[in-house]
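Input.
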Amino acid sequence: MLSTRKAAIQVAWLVFLVFERVLAAQTPLSSHGSDFEHDLGQWDLDEAPAVNATSHLVFETANSLLQHWANTRHRIGHTIIPGTVPVGTLLYHGSMSGPHIPTALDWVATEPDHSMLLCHGDVKAGCWHITFAVTRPMKVLYFDGSSAAKLPEGTMDTQDLVAWSEMKPEWLTSESRRIKDLCAWGQKYGVNGFVRMEMSVEIMICDFTSHMEVVSFLNLEITRVYQGPPTDLPKDENTMHGAFEVMHAASWREHYPGETRIILDFSGLVSFYDTALVPSLVPRRVGLERWDHRVAGISSEDIERVQERLAEALVRPPATAGGIDWKTVLRLVVDRYASRLEVMQYLLNITLDDTPILFDHARKVQRQLRTVLTPYTILAALPSNTSSNATNSWAAPVFRECATSHTASIAAHGAAFTPSEDLLLQAVQETTREICRITTKMWASGFIAGVDPFYPADQRPEAYRIRTLMGEWKEDMTKLISWLDWIVWVKCRPACGVEEMCYLPTWPLGFFPSPVITVVDRGAPFQAWNNGLLWPDPKKGEWKRPQPKCIRRLEPYGF
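Output.
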């Protein structure tokens, strides 16, 4: 059957090339035309990304902005991006000092469950809780990661660079100084808030009178009994319930689209994974897992470039310069590939000894590969008698069509892009290139091995050959999924029950015990952290490598 198809395909290939030339001559929509047959050499299925490549990291961090799950798993932020809080958005403030409406330099939460934890008072007097509404578009700057978590591992690095042009680890808990200096910096750019995340999303507000009005100012009954350090899990059930409900509210924003009440301007994105903008961090990441990437160690020259890039982004109107909806572009790539790659990894991780079942699994994987590549499998893409089956170079046209499908038309508008958009385009291009390289390579190998259901071999392949193929496939798929490291694959397995919720260890709830300290201000509970004996081994434990687990949604609670 295959040999019969080859003869027809050779004719089809010639027709295809003629059609490409005619189409290119009539409609020059892109660079995808007359040089098609000349550039296939750059689509080498054995050419892996550079070891220090970061486009996939730019891709995943940009795709995960304002999503609680991803930014809890990787707490050390590497992105700063302008945004806008739309008119009508409700924001919440729990007063820590009685019936007082703040006018400047204070915090608001996007969920009342969060602000109620900071609504201080006693059982008799209650506490004062304020609801604000945004009255005109409010310009904000968002720091990704768990940027409100007071951890010395680097969660505050990007804020330090904006506020003080250097890291200030000794000011880790100096929140009053931090908000004052950030607001002073942002005033010249019209920035009225700084968005951060810990248990939920919060905004550091510079001026409460310029963009917001009071909707309600209520004296509420207080349900939080325990007033100790926030890292200590409360003993009483009511306070524990309140802590859990903050996490429950945050779970609504865990995954795409994340926190939708803040509209990000991707044309102004600044990434510390941008190797052209921040080259000094490249050698500092060598040999490190993503968990351990820090912004600390950045050179003074790179700090200046970052600040200049931020200034350029903040003085532009808050609109995507090139007209591209980058949030959707990134998400569509994940939607197209994530579930199918996951299914293939599942099939390849099953250990089988029975040859017929092994062959059936190989065919199932091959069918998934073919499904992924179907929109790009041009009719002429079949091995010929003269092509090199060892390198599968005959599949290069499929690789190219797959790798360029999401970006070819976008790249044609590149002249209007900001540097941030150029970075995002490169991130999508290189990420999809690697996905398509691996899937095309696997598909071509399966085709040659005779496991493709669409082109069945005259004889079933021998068992050793199928095992070899499955082993190679498993290695390729494992490397690809590890390289992509998409948050959509991080989930509780098996899925949690009705009375449970999937949870990632989240600062500050139950991270590690703190000594009893009198609460004087926001920073007091954290002063004892200066004692290194209180810290666990940073290479161990779920606080450093958060893993999903099921926790109870109903009492008795536990984190």
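The chain has a mean pLDDT of 85.
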